[in-house]
Amino acid sequence: MAFLTARASHLTRSHRATSLFKRFMSNVPENTVYGGPAAQTSNDRVTLTHLRQKHKKGEPITVVTAYDYPSAVHLDMAGIDISLVGDSAAMVVHGHDTTLPISLDEMLVHCRAVARGAKRPLLVGDLPFGSYESSSSQAVDTAVRILKEGGMDAIKLEGASPSRINAAKSIVESGIAVMGHVGLTPQAISVLGGFKPQGRNVSSAVKIVETALTLQEAGCFAVVLECVPAPVAAAVTSALKIPTIGIGAGPFCSGQVLVYHDLLGMLQHPHHAKVTPKFCKQFACVGDVINKALLEYKKEVTQGCFPGPAHTPYKINSAYVGDFSNELQKLGLDKAASAAAEAAEDIKSHSEGSPKSE
């Protein structure tokens, strides 16, 4: 009995010491301790195993882009399977006309923000243009940074040229999961001649199937099919043993992906409306709601309605107002003293005139 009592006392002291250590560490940013991918447990994280199981059962996979903490939290709450930190951030967040300008450092900022907000989805980060084309070694180095510094679980790269295939294979062999991307590859618009659909003739369609198969052989866990005819997407999906994720590729893919801002109807400016893809369905018109709220805010501020008593919560004891004004007068700030006294009286009169909340 004495042994059990002593043992319990030791465990209690040990627990207290551990708790104290954690408390002292609580002010240390998490990413200074470890900034890599979050732990993938079977209970609360989507893993590659989950995706393979869904694919095997024929259950559609949901993918949405996210670029910051709020959007990541929304995806997390909705139970989206994959959160893609896409280089499309260059266009919808930074205002560029293409995906080409965004840098690796900028992508890492987006990745870290998303990693803080999305705890359930599999996190996939795009390798931005210019960060992996030179060599397989460069590609591996960039992919490692996306995981270690960005907190992602996997990476995505575009195209299926021999150099891209070698890069994908090298990244997989380094222990990093890779998602491929064929069809319209926005980083290649220089040679594609713009954002144009692919696979619309026999040779182009066959090439898409062949390149998707090559990416599978390189070890990719999934392939994005962008802007290709539905029969081509259906052929690729049938030919592959890994999931296909469609975007403007019709209903015959293993899953679908849309850009966060597009599906929410967030960007209402005529320029954005002009470049919104034809395949995108707006599931909401959030942009209209935002515009209305901002106009209402501007109106209330302009008219002096906001902030009213309900949104002026911080008070100073009325007994101190006179002393405060006196001190200001001693400093030669008579005008400021009068302003403080008048403001206190104004707030008091408005508060007394406001209906009491129960």
Automatic annotation (TrEMBL):
An annotated GO cellular component: mitochondrion
Pathway(s) the chain acts in: Cofactor biosynthesis; (R)-pantothenate biosynthesis; (R)-pantoate from 3-methyl-2-oxobutanoate: step 1/2
Enzyme class name: transferase
Protein's UniProt keywords contain Transferase: yes
CDD domains attached to this UniProt entry: KPHMT-like
EC number: 2.1.2.11
GO molecular function: 3-methyl-2-oxobutanoate hydroxymethyltransferase activity; magnesium ion binding
UniProt record, GO biological process: pantothenate biosynthetic process
Catalytic activity from the UniProt record: (6R)-5,10-methylene-5,6,7,8-tetrahydrofolate + 3-methyl-2-oxobutanoate + H2O = 2-dehydropantoate + (6S)-5,6,7,8-tetrahydrofolate
UniProt KW keywords: Pantothenate biosynthesis, Transferase
One matching Pfam family: Pantoate_transf
Keyword Transferase annotated: yes
InterPro entries, A to Z: Pantoate_hydroxy_MeTrfase, Pyrv/PenolPyrv_kinase-like_dom, Pyrv_kinase-like_dom_sf
Function: Catalyzes the reversible reaction in which hydroxymethyl group from 5,10-methylenetetrahydrofolate is transferred onto alpha-ketoisovalerate to form ketopantoate.
Homology family: Belongs to the PanB family.
Name under which the protein is recorded: 3-methyl-2-oxobutanoate hydroxymethyltransferase
